[in-house]
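Protocol step 4 of 6: structure prediction from sequence.
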Amino acid sequence: MNEKIILYADAEWADKRIDVFVAQNTDYSRNSVQLLLEDGKISVNDKNVSKSYKMKSGDKLEIIVEEPKDVGIMAEEIPLDIYYEDKDLLVVNKPKGMVVHPANGNESGTLVNALMFHCKDSLSGINGEIRPGIVHRIDKDTSGLLVVAKNDIAHEHLAKQFKEHSINRIYYAIVYGNVKEDSGDIEAPIGRHKTDRKKFCITETNSKYAFTHYDVIDRLNGFTLVKLKLKTGRTHQIRVHMQSKGHPLAGDPVYGPKNCITELKGQALHAGVLGFIHPATGEYIEFSSPWPAEFEKFYNSKKLKY
């Protein structure tokens, strides 16, 4: 079944080309946008337009996202750190550096490649051929727990819990500076960055509601260890929200300072707790995983000595 992406243009995009607008507000390149326009896959106010169309304030765009064709994803014998498994689902601890599902530039070595080898044909198909079983994601350089659905019924139940924000997700992060408040809420909408399509930012334009709660666990030498509970799960949510507070994540090459802490091999962010209602039994189950080695080592090196 095809899906739609719907975008609205505000006044700042007036008189800008449609291919520029779509490219800067989606994952598509300008060339891809132009091909979609030629194929009639993008409409403005329910009408097809050319690639030279100039945007008007208030325009409503619909992009038809077709089901992926057979992409020939290969099952790969990659070790999985499995915390729980039954006939309906499994919970895995994803290592830092592993991509969740194949995409351009990451066609192999992903969690999906490993799951296809481990589960064979026992993965839900709701999210299509390139994301079998995947109910939610975490960034490549974020480690931690993910639940994977083995059938469509389990997938639907879990997806409903994510939509209703009833999933218990707790992350641990090391951020720059001294977070003065012992706890706090960050409630700010997140959307794609205007000029850098790989980044997100706090914006009212084509954005989605986002809510993060944080608690300070330990104040370190130049850094703070925080525990974060997500109500929503937007792309890069924790990284963007903490940067907006003036406390970007240590090791984050995108939202942190230019002199990135390379020893962390990516942002110091770990999805340490995952709890949900089991789709078949109706019982609440919860899992926790320890910090990865580089996270633990960095934390210990920054602890205050009294």
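Step 5 (inspection) to follow. The chain has a mean pLDDT of 90.
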